[in-house]
Structure formats: structure tokens, C-alpha cells
């Protein structure tokens, strides 16, 4: 006779850990914008924080070796495939999006990824349809319209930035689907999975630098590292935390709380960049709230 499945109780650590991950991702977007303010090209701005994040993840993973192992290393290639999409491709359009549209608006667009991922899971993976997904989708559509149409905008705002931001959100959503497939039935350590994702993402971005018409010189690399050091550290900690949260926490708690990263991005943009410079008005708060609630609904019904 099979034993009944025991549901792990939600702990305060689940809540705090998930909120910390959301705060880190929210701060990351603003840190990227501040790095771009220092005159670094978006090309190096895409690669530098990802490479730094890889070093952070490597350090944490090496320190963890006495307490665990890599698990099923034979399936690490699946996570490496996910890394080609994000942060590989996504970081390129994400950095251009932050430059052209500002961190607050791009942070809201990235917050749409959970709903896009759910829609992809239904259409591609044939996961069961849930009415809550329709509600969440409508909310992010309204939030996206509020973000894109009218309202006050930053002085150097370009509409193409919102397009880049939407593409970055799609990349993150697709990567989530690939990561879910990679995790299915495998015992890969979340730390080593994060290494594989960040490693291939860094390789894609290095390749991107090499094939661009204007290649970055060695003299430009160190200023880029300095400018994006905070973003890279935040990225590494956030991604490691994200993988651990989904591995050991309950999804119904982790997903809605990590979805609040959009609100944290807006908060950090006001604090570190300025409400006037980012042109953050009521429309931005409405858009962010709709996107966050939509993401929370996806987590609750998922």
C-alpha cells in the first residue's frame, strides 16, 4: 500500500528567500541602467554582468562542494541549451531595452514572462488549460497597453526599447520552458544547473562581441567590468537564489513572490535613478501592479 504524499509546510524561510530573489532581480535591472550611464556600450553591457555572474556562481558552487555533489551531470547539457536562450540571446535585447526605454518600463515587461511561459506551456507542452491563465493574460495585456500608450516618458526614451523589452521577456519565457523540460526526471544540482545556464550564456555573448562590426578593444573591457560589477554580483546571486528557491521551495509560494520583481524594479528606479528622470507616474504603477498580479495568478494556479 502506497504512503500518502506529505505536503511540505510553507515556512517563513520560503517567503523570505523568494522575496530576496525578487529584490535582487529588481535591483539588477536598475544596476544595468546605471552601468550604461557610465558610457559603456550595450554590447559589453550585455556580456560583462553575465560573465561576472558566472564567476559568482562558480565561487558559490565550489564552496558548496563539501556539502553536496553535482548530481546527474549527464543531463547538464539540457541546462546549457536553456542558457543559449537566456541569458544568451535575452541579455542582448535586454541591455538595449534598458538603454532605450529605462529600467522601470523594462522591469515591468520582464515581469510578463511567467504568463507568457504559461501560455507556451499550454500550446507547446500541451499542459492543461486553466481559466486563471486567461485572467492573467488579460491583466498583462492591459498592463502592457498602459505601459506603451501615452503617458509621460523619459527624455531619451525610444519606443524600440519596449520592443526589445518584449523580446527579452519572450526569451525568458522560452528559457523557463526549456529549464522545466531539463529538470523533468533529472537529478542535476541546482547550483551546477545555474553554472551550465550562465556558462553557455556567457559564451553566446562573447561570440556576439566577436561578430559585431565594431569589436570591443581590450581597453574597454576593464571599464565595463567596473561599471557592471554590481549588476553582475546581483545577477549571480539572484540566479542562484532563483534555482534554489524553485528546487526546495513550494512553487505556489515562490512563483507569486518572485513575480513582484517588477514592483521592486520600479522602487529601485525611483530610489537610485529618480522618479522624474525615469518619468514614473501613476500609469507605471498601474502597469506594474497588473503585471505582478497576473504573474501571481499564474503561480497560484500552476
Mind explaining what this structure looks like?
With 302 residues, the chain is mainly alpha-helical. It has one domain (12-301). Helices cover 75% and strands 0% of the residues. It has 13 helices and no strands. The longest helix is centred in the first third of the chain and has 26 residues, at 76-101. The chain is globular, with a radius of gyration of 19 Å.
List the helices and strands and how they pair.
Blueprint: H1 12-36, H2 42-64, H3 76-101, H4 103-110, H5 113-123, H6 131-148, H7 160-183, H8 190-211, H9 218-227, H10 229-248, H11 251-258, H12 261-272, H13 282-301
Helix pairs in contact: 1-4, 1-10, 1-11, 1-12, 2-3, 2-8, 2-9, 2-10, 3-4, 3-7, 3-8, 4-7, 4-12, 4-13, 5-6, 5-7, 5-13, 6-13, 8-10, 11-13, 12-13
Summary of the model, kept short:
The protein is mostly helical and about 300 residues long.
Distinctive features:
302 residues; mainly alpha; disordered N terminus
Number-wise, the strands total 0
Oligomer category: single chain
Helical stretch count? 13
Strand content is: under 5%
- Class computed from helices, strands and strand pairing: mainly alpha
Overall tally of structural domains: 1
Radius of gyration: 19 Å
The major β-sheet equals: none
**Quick one: overall form?**
globular
Would you list the SSEs in sequence order as H and E? HHHHHHHHHHHHH
DSSP helix fraction: over 70%
